[in-house]
Amino acid sequence: MDWQTALAQLRARLPRQREAWGVRGSLRWLEQAMHARGANPSAVRNLIYRDIGTPQDRVALHAVLCALAGEVGLTLPPLARPVAAPLPPELELLGRSKRRAYKQFMASVRAGRDVRLTVSGPAGVGKTLLIEHLERELQQVDPPPQVRRLQLGASLEHGLALAPLDPALPYAVQAARQAAAAQAVLDELRADLPAVLLIRVTPGAAVSGVPARLPDGTGVSAGRWAAETLLRAAPPGVSVLLAVESASDLPDDLPGERIRLSLPTPSEARRYLMDRLGLPAGRADELVRQTGRHLDRLTLLAAARGAAGQGGPAASRLLADPAARQLLAALCASLPPDEPSAPASVLEAALGQPLSQLPVHLSALIDDVNPQTLRPVSAELLAEAREHLPAAELQAALTRLVDGTRGHPEHAIHHLRALATLDRWPEVVTWLDQHPERLDQAARLWPVARERAGGEAREGLARSVMTHHAMLGDYSHPQARDALFTLLDSPRASVRAWARVKLAESSMDAANVQAAQAQLQHPELRGPLDRPVQGDPWLQGAQADARLVEAALARWQGDLDLATRLAADPAVLHGGPYGTPARAALWRGLIAKDAGRWPEAMALLVGVPDDHPLLSARARYQEGDLRLRLGQPQAALNALEDAAGRLAVAGGTPDERARVEARIATALRRLGHPHPALQRSLQARALAQDVDSVLQARLSSEAIPVLLALFRPDEALQLAAGALALLERPGARRAEAEYRLRRTRYRAALAYLTRGLGLPYLPPFAGAVTDHPDLRQARRLLDRLLAEDGGGLDREQLLTFDILLSRALAEPDPLRALTFSTQALAMTDHPYAEAQARAARAEVRLRQGDADAALADINRGHALLRRVASGLGDTQLPDPGLQALLLALEARTALLHAPDLPTLRWLEQALSPAELAPFRSQVWRDVGRQLELLDPEAVVRTLRQLWPTWTAPTLRLPDALAWQQDHQDNGVPAADYTTTLV
């Protein structure tokens, strides 16, 4: 069909009518129409301009165009039918009966005729292979029919939407439900499209777990049932192929033809192997004799050389060979039923010899497309072998696998799984105690261990499972709760004590402080925890964890000295396999960070070893957070990106990864990159879709400044409203929710401040000189927050500091604004915070017109920022946003009374470092507002001295300077565009 001609004819006749999808008949409209029909919208242009597309997309587009043609009285030509594809090699070479069945069925479907066909034959003759090739080829028919495939077997049933039936039900009820299920299959096939039903029935098949019955309750074979309820009952427009082992019990009056399939002749089988495997005639004859001309076995041999093998050979012949049994046992030992492949070295360990020593006929059982990761060519073969292998031989293979993978951490999962299959659980516990960084393996084994392990081994596995989920912070996971209750039921007091500490730890993690305190006071804990313990790893671990929970409680209550002592307790450092120095270092780093002991905190966090993936990831996250606070956003970004990578490798929970992504967004925003910051913020919220409402609110709240940096205050306010709604139902995390509520209200005030000032929330962010309704709302919100008692915790003090700085910006009265900036300055406890407060006060003093006082604060801010860069011995540059703010303030101070060419030249040079590039246009915009207050002619003369092509712009001076800087940063010389501003 000529798609372009047809579309041109339609457009010439169709009225130019605009709809929701665009102009009727346009490419965009056609794409939406394709989407509405479930087709691929992207195929429209390929079909119209290049005539390239799938049969399904051709049919869909043809139908859309035909509908349009009908509206204007046109008739489009039908689609041409494709040329029939050649027969698949397995059918071309292996038997006339299969070729006949395939050709006859496909010819009828292509011709649009209903066909009823029954094929029969013994196992291995290729019935399933025939159905699979038909199913594949039917997808290429144009238009493709609906294809439904049903499989009925003794223990397998696919395609019938019927739950297992109770054998005790009356036969009439069973028959009625089976008939209803068959009718449902036919009803699902749309009456307006051709359909094909492919049915495979294997010996001993049942229907929903009970013998098949006709509608009158008569018991019949599954083949007879399918023939009566599906093949005979199929409505017009539905073609049916029924494949059974024997057609002897099928009724004579069954509609359609019957074809008896037969095994390939020796010459056909020999020719197939010679063609597919490139074998000489003698070797092909030998393999034909070995396979017994069994079609599945012949295709299995072809699969070993890359041909498409189908089906699984019968295992009985192979199991009669001792060498084949050993290989099958090794495959079963290496591959659980739910895994398709295993490393070659693991299979060799279970086999006890290199795979290169296998004879050719056994090598055919292994798919070696990837020489490092192997799989059997037939999953059906392995499933059958697993049922019939002698138990002693499977155990021998598992024992060889255990011995061969011992000492190889990359094969930990195979090693532990083999130990578990052999019920050698004490060895599993010992391995986990020696590899505390691999406790994820305990979680994999727990479903089996809780049923088969016993005594101390089961409790050891439960401890590993609980510790694994505790490290992830996932205390509510069903496995964690199951393991915890297993330990609380232990007859040993030391085990119960350890479990009760974990219970307190989980309460502390959920911010349920009262519950954690109460649990630590349980009678079973006070004795063991108050005295030294030796030789009992359970009590040693309980003491270590209890000290850390007590440290967390003290930290929560603001007693950082007590928290420091508890985290440094010797019990924490020597608390068994999981009371490691790494955990102690992380906790001590957190407490030192809260206490403002920055060098100590940084040293402890950096010192958490890399061989603890989750702990080191958390340390890097806390390091990044600390560097953000200390004014080193680039170093913070490096640490946070490292934390994100470690969490991804270590399997960190979505909520923990979301928190890291949100802080990465903050670091990017602080570096002046709001667009990538928004992408990371969206990733954070996508990861946290299923977490508790407090964390969702926190992530939404942290995204608000990113949107404000992009000057999208309306969206930011919508996000704030959603976060506040979430925080109204905090659940158990009420204390955390109260802080997040205050922080979110502060960010809502920031949104009003940003909209009221009309500036993106990026430095330099000048304060108000006139009032505005949004500024009044911002002041109301900020004053309300300042009136509340947030408590003495470090984060509350930091929030108050931020509120004071923003309150100064929102206040158009310079005297009142000075009060707030001075209060913020009094709160500072490190160089970066003081530099921020000095810059804020300098900005207010400039609004007052006090250049000397402003310059004093600016110079002090520059000096403090130099200390930020060197105070912790770090090579990273300090906060470029604060640098840009100080430079803008310094330039405005020099330009307070008259335009000054040396100042502008100095500013241009000072802004040259690459780190300041994201802030240049904002700095020039800020300077432009200062220049607007001066004599316009003097300003133009000065700017022409700086940029000879400068002329009086149509834009306001701040906008023109910002626009010029943006274009210079993009490589456009000023001379090329400033004249366009006239």
From TrEMBL:
SUPFAM superfamilies: P-loop containing nucleoside triphosphate hydrolases (SSF52540), TPR-like (SSF48452). InterPro entries: P-loop_NTPase, TPR-like_helical_dom_sf. This is Orc1-like AAA ATPase domain-containing protein. It comes from Deinococcus sonorensis.
